[in-house]
Amino acid sequence: MKLFLLEDDDAIAMGLKYSLEKENYEVVHVRTKSEALSTFTENEYDLCILDINLPDGNGYDVCRYIKGKEDVPVIFLTASDAEVNVVMGLEMGADDYVCKPFRINELMARIKTVLRRSGHGRENNADNEGILQIQNVRIYISEAKVGIVNDTGKEEMAELTALEYRLLLAFCNNRGTVMSRNQLLEDMWDVNGDFVNDNTLTVYIKRLRDKIEKDPSNPHIIKTVRGLGYIIDK
Hints:
Elements: E1 2-6, H1 10-22, E2 26-30, H2 33-39, E3 47-51, E4 53-54, E5 57-58, H3 59-69, E6 74-78, H4 83-91, E7 96-99, H5 104-118, E8 131-134, E9 137-140, E10 145-149, E11 155-158, H6 162-172, H7 181-188, H8 198-212, E12 223-225, E13 229-231
Parallel strand pairs: 1-2, 1-3, 3-6, 6-7
Antiparallel strand pairs: 4-5, 8-9, 9-10, 10-11, 12-13
Helix pairs in contact: 6-8
Protein name: Stage 0 sporulation protein A homolog
Organism: Butyrivibrio fibrisolvens
GO molecular function: phosphorelay response regulator activity; transcription cis-regulatory region binding
């Protein structure tokens, strides 16, 4: 997994690079806008981490350049959480942002979440037509739609909210793996500001089961692993 890091503060960059490499990420570090623009096309990256304030420009320009080349996930590092900075970054296609000073564990969690959302974190189990099949549930990735096949073979579309759909994808992208509530909360974190806490997560899991399970009180798709979390079997 290769990451592109644009950070002009050497102290921050060295600490980040060290921590990321301990997590088995390969990191290419650049310090300026001009260096970023000239270096980016030399490799293929799974995710870019971009500082906004640079000595010769800003990270917005670099993000615009990167997104014009390919759809690589981007996380901004910003010294300000001012709404205008956040909105500007998101409108350019950024996937997330982290405010300085930040805890390294927070950034690691955000990186893993963005990679999972983009399909880089794990195999997404999608077939060549972009359809995930989980028992009688079909997820049409390109259309962000979910169909439920009944006992007669007829398919009816389930009306999921954006967060319910994101929760279902989080489970599907981690099939065969127990997901803790904390992991699910990371995936449910919403850059648009919709706060999801532990109690809200319980509500969303219940609503999702009500919409996709034949018997929500005895679920066979999203199973509870007592004391650990939830799992969808492979």
